[in-house]
Amino acid sequence: MIKYNGVNHLALVTGDMDKTIRFWRDLLGMRLVAGLGRPGYRHYFLEISGTDLIAFFEWEGVEPIEEVDHGTPRQGGLVFDHVSFGVESFSMLWELKDKLTAAGFWASEIIDHGFIHSLYSFDPNGIPIEFSHQVEGVDIRSRPRMGDRSPSPAALEGAEPRPEVWPRVKKATPPEERRVYPGAGSELFQGLKKEDQG
């Protein structure tokens, strides 16, 4: 079974990279670790943690989205509600609340969700963000819970993955046929090393 080690990166969009960097790097404290670009295009990466990044494309003509309360039902084409970042201590939620407020950004009260305490806000692009701290002694990863009174049929099947619902791989790609092709960013590191291709 595949073992994941986090969100490598979440790619979002901005029309103003400088304003975005000022917020994510300078206000929230995430390091700017890579930047790609050419006229009319930028793609920058900021470090959330040792395994997780957030990235922004800058495209001309992109405008901030309307701020809509986190978790508010909407209709139509939609794929995203908000992103939540874990913080290491409860006091960090208050530190973030104070920083956001001092910088003129709206920041919610600290909300108790039973397993996490959360702070909500928006970045300069209108992207809804949450900061969460795990409640001591409560870990839904080790003890999954379902509180939905009318769970979806797939949810009734339990927490564990059920790979048998999908077709099995009949022929895996042999190692000698595995190729990695250069893409945006490879120029930062002079291409891929031979041992990284297999």
Description:
There is one protein chain. This protein is an alpha/beta fold and 198 residues long. Among the domains are: 61 residues, 2,3-Dihydroxybiphenyl 1,2-Dioxygenase, domain 1 (Roll); 57 residues, 2,3-Dihydroxybiphenyl 1,2-Dioxygenase, domain 1, CATH 3.10.180. It is built from 2 helices and 8 strands, in the order E-H-E-E-E-E-H-E-E-E. Strand 6 and strand 7 form a beta hairpin.
Distance, first to last CA: 19 Å
Q: List how many beta strands DSSP finds.
A: 8
Helix content: 10-25%
Spatial extent as radius of gyration: 20 Å
Strand content: 15-25%
CATH class of one domain: Alpha Beta
Major sheet strand order: 1-4-3-2
The overall pLDDT average reads 88
Biggest beta-sheet profile: 4 strands, mixed
Overall morphology: globular
Alpha-beta classification: alpha/beta
Provide the fold topology:
Blueprint: E1 9-14, H1 17-27, E2 32-38, E3 41-47, E4 53-58, E5 83-86, H2 90-102, E6 111-112, E7 116-122, E8 128-134
Parallel strand pairs: 1-4, 5-8
Antiparallel strand pairs: 2-3, 3-4, 6-7, 7-8
